[in-house]
Amino acid sequence: MERSSPNGLGVCTKLSFAVGHFLNDLCASVWFTYLLVYYHNVRRFGNSAAGLLLMLGQVADGICTPIVGFETDRRSCFPVYGARKTWHLAGTLAVVLTFPFIFNPCLGCSDTTPEFAKILLYAPLIVIFQCGWASVQISHLSLIPQLACSDGDKVELTAYRYAFTVMANIMVYGVAWLLFHFQPTSTGDLSGNLGPQDIPIFRNLVLIIVAIGAAFSVIFHVGTKEEPRKAGQREAQLEVETAVESTPLLPANPCPTRVHMIWKDWFKEPAFYQIAVLYMCTRLIVNLSQTYIPMYLTETLGLHKNYIATIPLVMYMSGFFSSFVMKPLNALIGRYMTYFVGLIMVMAFSDWVWLGVPGNWVYAAALLLGAGTSTILVTSLAMTADLIGNHTECGAFVYGAMSFTDKVSNGLAVMLIQNLHPCKNVACCPLCAPFYKIVMIAVPGGVAILSLVMLGLLTIWPIRIRKGQTDGCSQTRAGIEGVYDQKFKD
């Protein structure tokens, strides 16, 4: 495992690690922003059918994530290459081979093919894609605690990773804008409405982003070195890590060997559930606002279809610049206050939508939402890394469990919203406009209030792993933790 110095990781290591999720980020941007628009407005699926496809993908992803997390924490079939990188490679291949077909007309389909038959043809592709996506996500996230040399490195790796997430979204929306802008007038809709004539736009968009993402995945596999796990060495490694990390900051510890955790132990930790709910709320805010803002722009505000590229682009430009201040902001005011600042921006956006966003002020609202979602997402991921701490032996399982709550809740929320849609036919009716406005108020604002409650509970009961605290060393361990916390506060 490459570590440049006692002060932290090298820039090349950080960058090569950060690009490992770039393909996933590109696909996720297209998936959440354009899936409903593509299947409902372009392919002319019903609201419930489009929502069903998205929910199917989210549920498949949610089921795969804890399984992948559990398996990733075990030995790899290729121990020299590393368990996490092996799963990452397998997931990358699955994504590359299936995602382009999801945004293309199904093979053998015609205008007379029943809708349920089309759903059955797309379903296996979506399931394979989401399982591959989950493999890449969990294996990549679980490398953070393993690569990070310090608490600051965890935040920095997360910030670098999210900076590339935002860059991926910027790239998707930039390419989408170019494709819409230079669309031939013979195939485009002069009224600016989305329709079947836009199928080539989405096909070309997906082919471009998959090719670019695959190239960045190669950079990750070449530049990131995962320490291979060898039989009989793991327990010794854990003891060495504990001794090395505690030497500069802590007094002599009469209980030097920390407790080795397995996946079952996490279900006995209250902090595990606290972070799971907070992470779920964060992802609901980020993903659902990203999913429904295209419909809000086109149906509620009546804007040209180009805006489904430019407004999300503004959002993620704002998020990109916000990601660079995450580390100093965390150091200045702490994790919880940083998350609180992000929530305030999200709730301010919901209030703005409720009051009515006039004309070009929609760009300012997009800036606010982009900065807020970026802040809470980076901070929630850093809190998850805090929860794992030195227990990297099952870090992938923890990330998988967090992602399970995220994916399933997102899928169920989308299906619920789609079934509540007042327009039951393929085409939108006049009730679409107020409906999408309510969604953009209730989802970010309502879930932000729930996140605020969970943040308050974390303030009262901070993140702490209690396993092993009931033995004779509990008081000593508690005292050491107090010294450790005070050292970082000072």
UniProtKB/TrEMBL annotation:
Which keywords annotate this record? Answer: Membrane, Transmembrane, Transmembrane helix
What is one process in the GO biological process aspect for this record? pigment metabolic process involved in pigmentation
Q: How does it sit in the membrane?
A: Multi-pass membrane protein
| Gene Ontology molecular function, alphabetical | symporter activity
State the GO CC annotations: plasma membrane
Q: What is its main location?
A: membrane
Q: Which domain of life is it from?
A: Eukaryota
Instruction: Give the record's family classification.
Output: Belongs to the major facilitator superfamily.
Q: What is the recorded name of this protein?
A: Major facilitator superfamily domain containing 12a
Supply the source organism for this entry: Eptatretus burgeri (Inshore hagfish)
